[in-house]
Amino acid sequence: MKVQAPQSAINVLKEILANNQDKPQNVRVYFAGFACSGAVFSLALDVEYPDEDTSYDLDGIHFIMNDNEYLTYGDVIISEVPPKGFVVSVERPPEKGDYSDCGGNCCDGCSGC
Questions:
Q1: Which one-letter DSSP state was computed for residue 69?
Q2: Dist CA 63 CA 27 (whole Å)
Q3: Residue 84, pLDDT score
Q4: Which residues are registered as beta bridge partners of 102?
Q5: Rounded to an integer, what distance in angstroms lies between the CA atom of residue 81 and that of residue 87?
Q6: For residues 79-95, b (16+ Cβ closer than 10 Å) or e, as one string?
Q7: pLDDT at residue 97, rounded to an integer
Q8: How many angstroms separate the CA atoms of 110 and 38, rounded?
Q9: Whole-angstrom distance, CA of residue 35 vs CA of residue 25
Q10: Which of the 8 DSSP states describes residue 97?
Q11: Interval 56-106: pLDDT, tens
Q12: Measured CA distances, 73 to 13, 51, 89, 113 (Å)
């Protein structure tokens, strides 16, 4: 697993970790579903499951991802998108057609759900 992120994202994540010392200090990357713009990947502070997760350390931040999701989606890219903030994407994002049902995660404006 590899994670690419600009220093600005690393700084924000370090601040979040510092402000949440009572939470797990691992940053989980996960597939959160679909939005109108396509696949959505998110970050969360979470416990690492060594038998189920792969990991990558970047500038003092420990990223984790479920083994199966990593094999499916590949490496992680965190990009800065001013003024919105940051976007998490992957090497091989899923297409809506990869799933027979969007599970209610699509907005009313989406076609094909």
A1: H
A2: 5
A3: 83
A4: none
A5: 7
A6: eeeeeeebebbbeeebe
A7: 62
A8: 10
A9: 28
A10: G
A11: 999 999 999 999 999 999 999 999 998 889 999 999 998 876 554 545 444
A12: 22, 19, 9, 21
Report DSSP state, residue 51: T
What sign for the dihedral angle of Cα 68, 71, 75, 76?
negative
The C-alpha angle 19, 5, 92, rounded to 5 degrees, equals 120
Give the helix ranges, DSSP H, for 1-113.
Answer: 7-18, 67-73
- Residues in CB range of 16: below 8 A, 6 or more apart: 45
Distance separating alpha carbons of residues 3 and 19, to the nearest angstrom:
22
Instruction: Please answer whether residues 112 and 96 qualify as being in contact, where contact means their C-beta atoms are separated by less than 8 angstroms.
Output: yes
* Number of residues that make up the chain: 113
